[in-house]
Amino acid sequence: MLDALQNAFFQTGDTLTSWLSAFSSFLWGWPLLIMLLGTHLYLTAILRFPQRYLLKALKLYFVKDHTDKGDISPFSSLMVALAANIGAGNIIGVGVAIAAGGPGAVFWCWLTGILGMATRYSEGLLAIKYRVENKDGNMSGGPMFVLERGLNSKWLGTAFAVFTAIAAFGIGNLTQGNAAAEQLHHAFSIPFWGTAAVLTALTALVMLGGIQGIARVCAFFVPFMAVIYIMGCLYILTIQAEYIFPAIRYILDCAFTGEAAAGGAAGAAVMAAMRTGVARGLFSNEAGLGSAAIASAAAQNRNPVRQALISSSGPFWDTVIICALTGIVLTTSIIAHPDISCTDGPRLTTLAFSKIPYIGSPLLTLSLVTFVVSTILGWSYFGEKALEYLGGIRLIMPYRVIWVAAVFIGCVSKIELVWIFADCANGLMSLPNLISLLALSGVLVQQTRYYLWQHRLDDYDESHIPEGK
User: How many CB atoms lie under 10 A from the CB of residue 374?
Assistant: First the structure.
């Protein structure tokens, strides 16, 4: 009887995986790719390449704004956003992208990060400009408020909030817990339920502190985990230095000539590399998704453009640096070691790090687990704010209970299903957000001209912040 129920469960899972995979392929076809990359390019052009202000953005990390408008510091808001962005997608997801689209997917993922800096700039600016103060005295903002207050489109704001609440469980919960459980089981034979129990308890404990508690944990974890992981990648590249330039050439060849992991026609392979790379880039840095803007809205900042600059640096760290390093590490490992193949998918990063004597597997495990913990915490806040927009603060506590329970479920789920689910949710979530960015491009230019191009970054914005829900 138990075997029959188990077989029925897995058959249902396989059917659902097949359906979601077909929907994901449709959703991430040419129309959404053109809209996403087109928005990145358009905003880069009209805002005069805001990526060139990266050094100014980095300096603003260490400047504290003395204003009572906001719940956390600008640096903390960035750490919450990065905590949500830098997760399993940067480690496991790059291997999945290479397996699905070939090494060329790494290039498209990296390009999405570069261009996405302009989009994240825009999202951060609008989040500050259209945020509201809720009944608890905390700031609430993000694309749902931008759509409602900037475009007078309540229904689109509601659609974004619904997609965000759903997507949070895919990109920020199920996939993260699943990746941590898989890695700990592979490295140390820790049972899945053991990882589930510990991760669930940690999540519940930190979420009790709200955004301030989440921000404190993220401000500690994010820099630490990023440095540890980058050091591991650099060590692998040092011992495989002779393969770095061949790997870069291989990535570029696959991106433009159509050599994919599974072979096939050149045109189809280029499309596979582009689609997979752009989807994984969005999964990594969330530029165009709109989620990071929810954290930006909580920042204490004197004007929208200052926060926009800080927000724009997010894709630089999580995609331009970390995803690029991961992609080059994996490709050099594929070239250097005959026992590592493009088709290894989720295990690619594990196999690459296993080549580091003694410390490789523990180092990857430590990086992945800290990435996962911070991502679960960051996305819990995004989903919470989406639910608050839909039904008020009364929904926060039930949502937290469901979120904590989902962490346990994610640790014992099939990885293929949750990754595909996350890609579908991402695509749906990006549509209303991209509409708001394009429709309010005039506001973006006006604000950027006043504060940035006319050198008024130190001015205070005296706009009134209305009371929301």
Answer: 29
- Nearest C-alpha neighbor of 112 from the set 28, 26, 41: 41
Considering the entire predicted model, what is its pTM?
0.86
The tokens for 237 are 């590249």
DSSP 139: E
Amino acid making up residue 251: I
Q: Is the pLDDT of residue 420 over 80?
A: no
User: Can you tell me the distance from the alpha carbon of 412 to that of 430, in angstroms, rounded to the nearest whole number?
Assistant: 28
Sequence-distant (≥ 6) Cβ neighbours of residue 140 within 8 angstroms = 131, 132, 133, 134, 297, 385, 388, 389, 468, 469
Q: Is 53 in contact with 306 (CB distance < 8 Å)?
A: no
CA distance 432 to 436: 6
Ranked by mean pLDDT, which of 107-121, 192-206, 435-449 comes out on top?
A: 435-449
- Rounding to the nearest 10 degrees, give the CA dihedral for residues 329, 177, 281, 76: -100
pLDDT in tens, 143-176: 999 999 999 999 999 999 998 888 888 778 887 8
How far is the C-alpha of 469 from the C-alpha of 460, rounded, in Å?
A: 25
Tokens of 133: 């103060």
For 210, the enclosing helix (H) or strand (E) is helix 210-239
The residue type found at 209 is G
Q: Return the structure tokens found at 329.
A: 């590490």
Radius of gyration of the chain (CA): 21
Question: What is the dihedral sign for C-alpha 75, 78, 79, 80?
Answer: positive
CA angle 122, 43, 95 (to 5 degrees): 85
For residue 396 the two structure tokens come to 């926060």
pLDDT in tens, 268-324: 566 677 777 777 777 677 788 888 899 888 888 888 999 999 999 988 988 888 888
For the stretch 404-415, what's the b/e string if a residue is b when 16 or more beta carbons lie within 10 angstroms of its beta carbon? bebbbbbbebeb
Report d(CA 427, CA 282) in Å as an integer.
Answer: 9
Q: Kindly state the DSSP code that residue 72 receives in the 8-state scheme.
A: B
Task: Tell me the one-letter amino acid at 129.
Answer: K
Q: Are 102 and 329 in contact (CB under 8 A)?
A: no
Structure tokens at 212: 């301030």
Which has the closest alpha carbon to 449: 441, 101, 310? Answer: 441
Q: How many helices (H) and strands (E) does the chain have?
A: 22, 2
Helices 30-46 and 104-129, packing angle to 10 deg: 60
Q: What's the DSSP call for residue 243?
A: G
pLDDT, residue 153, reads 93
The reported pLDDT for the residue numbered 339 is 82
Tokens, residue 37: 């990359």
